[in-house]
Amino acid sequence: MEHVKESEEFEKVEKINILESYAVLLKKVFISDEFDIDINLLERAVMCKPEEFFKLIMILRRKQVKLPAWLFNKLLWSVVFVPAELVALMADPAFDLSQICEIQQKLMGKPPYEQAKLYVRPDLSLHQIEEIVLGFSQKLSIEQVELYADPKFDYKQMRLIREGFKKGFSMEQVKLYADPRFSPEQMQEIMLGFEHGLSLEEVKLYTNPELSAEQMREIRLGLEYGRAGKNLR
Fold first, then answer.
1. Domain residues of the chain, as ranges?
2. Is the distance from CB of 182 to CB of 209 less than 8 angstroms?
3. HSE-up (13 A, CA, CB side) for residue 78
4. What pLDDT score does 227 carry?
5. Nearest Cα to Cα of residue 70 among 91, 49, 48
6. Residue 189, CA atoms < 13 Å, CB-side half-sphere
7. Per-residue pLDDT for 163 more than 60?
8. CA–CA separation, 155 vs 12, rounded Å?
9. Its pTM surpasses 0.90
10. Which of 105, 45, 109 is nearest to 77 (CA)?
């Protein structure tokens, strides 16, 4: 009995030594700072999802990326729940902790890679990431979401582009105001033109970033009143 117990203890110590040695090797290859890889996270990844773990390591090798230890540990945590190719999208030292925590939650739903790559980007704010994810949750197409999944738009501009598609606007209509030169207030005036029945050519008459939102409104109302007058005659 004592022999069995000693054998189990030996195997436990041996496993710890192997993991520690592997962690040292991984640190040399992938870690950019002086901090260590979390042995517990490494063990869980290797034991629970070995195929995904080693797939992740191969992707990181191909990317030839160096990461801070905190970020590598986040990847180890994620690969137990999320496919390796999605986890690898987070392997960029430009991410900060708040972005990674938000993205981890989004990836738990295992979205298609083509969707995830549009928002797993360090140049997007948390609000921008949310707008892109909302687009997919509202069944917008890749082409529609791609139109606004760009850091040149702030999250308020992204929201109005997304809402345009949600309202049923055509791609041609949305492209008319999907321009970062337009403020959210200017975008709303263009959207109101379509909502109130103006044609594409009519809305184009005041679609100019050099016009203020108030000037756009005055032109829009004039066009709407003119159309209403025609209908009465």
1. 1-91+103-108, 123-233
2. yes
3. 28
4. 74
5. 91
6. 25
7. yes
8. 51
9. no
10. 45
